[in-house]
Amino acid sequence: MAMLGCLATGAIALAGCGEAQVGDPASVVQGSKASAKAPAPSVARAGAGVAHEVADPEEANSFPLPAASVQRHRSATSPSAAGEAAVAPGAPSDAEIRKELGEEEQAKARERTARQRVLTPVAGGFSVGGNGTIPIPTNVPEAVQRVVAGGNAIADFPYIWGGGHASFIANGYDCSGSVSYALAAGGLLGAPLVSGDLATWGEPGPGRWITIYANAGHTFMNVDGIWFDTAGRSGPYASRWLVSTPPLAGYAVRHPPGM
Length: 259
Prior knowledge:
The chain is an alpha+beta fold. It contains six helices and ten strands; from the N terminus they run ββββααααααββββββ.
């Protein structure tokens, strides 16, 4: 299926995956493969660049659905509602987490190991099995828990080009719409961004808890050791959470400030 391309309106692109300047060359992995609430003032905001139309090179691996197909899902809730409803009870505050970095690192390493042992793929692909969600981690900042909750909320939604860009509330999401939704659930993003804009968003290099990989046509991220990607799934309603590392060459590496 041919990719339709991407649209952009004003300062914030509103459809599909787009093209933008990749930014700091030091943050790029070298290789040949290429109406949530407004964020608080301290939260990173969208850039001012306008993305151009490009094809998503991973579209075929994302099991895209035709726009006219019957959908399994009703529209998702807003990202803020998804994060609020599913965040782990009694989650520690960011300040509490940062006061106990030594204990946190040890506990986080143990928890990652335990989670990865139970995340087995479904037959025929690399998506996690079960109901497609992953456990919400503890001993991480609440924003990270909310990002996981947001990813869980749309984990098995189908891939639809442009989904999640005209509005966060949709019944299917493309790659950048998916990443944008999960980041917005964590209060880290106030409006959807296309892939090319995510390649320059935030800060360069990997983050402690969240690392975004993006180029002009595709984007995905790692959240506390688990991959979140529309490509590499087992079918149109398989989970976006993956148990295998996707190819990383050709992507800018970014992270949300402080994350």
